[in-house]
Amino acid sequence: MTDYVGGGREMRPGTVSLVGAGPGDPELLTVKARRLLEEADAVLYDSLVSEAIRELPPASVERIDVGKRGDGERTTQAAINGLMVRRAAAGDDLVRLKSGDPCVFGRGGEEAEHLAAAGIPVEVVPGITSAIAGPELIGVPATHRDHASSLTVVTGHDDPTKTEGALDWDALAGSVTAGGTLVILMGVGRLPDNMGALRAGGVDPETPVAVVERASRPDEFAVTGTVETI
User: Fold this and answer.
1) Which residues form the Tetrapyrrole methylase domain (predicted)?
2) Does 130-226 carry CATH code 3.40.50.300?
3) Known active-site residue 84
4) Prediction pTM value
5) Which homologous superfamily does the CATH classification assign to the domain defined by 2-125?
6) How distant, in Å, are the alpha carbons of 16, 140, 181, 191, 227 from that of 209?
7) Is 56 helix (H, G, I), strand (E, B) or coil?
């Protein structure tokens, strides 16, 4: 984008939109997300974004695979940050497309801080998080007036080196024992450890558990059991 000032031409930076892609079904995208995908100069997408959504931008929009996963990232966060700043500083309007919601364990907050510090206009477009979509799509409401009056969402692979803000599994177990719903995102890889931590915290081994993978996609998988058997 350009502005004309005093007869000269002044380049202004483009905007970076941190957009939530939802769980995977294109029909679960927000109207604004769909519009931005069609209007952007380039879309930078993560590997967790579904193929169906990656194919939505028209041919005129550049698609950049930044292929980032928490368990073995192919593009470093620093490289992604640098690319966004360079492209936006050159005047490009970018969509940074993230699975689910950009700020629910998606590093959207970190990226927004970096862009703002570099003087790049940034906006956040919320998406449907799998913390809600996953349970609901298999018929399990996240809350229910008669059964669950609280909802806690945590990451399933907390950084073990964190000195502040680390998960308190005893407290989480207490919330489950009190009748609350606990959603563990990205938790399949550490499922036995996480269930063990809940049992150690006093959760009844017969407490129902559901595991959902690839929610809303054609290959969605779900299984149910208990804290003891899952």
Assistant:
1) 16-229
2) no
3) no
4) 0.86
5) Tetrapyrrole methylase, N-terminal domain (3.40.1010.10)
6) 38, 10, 10, 11, 6
7) coil
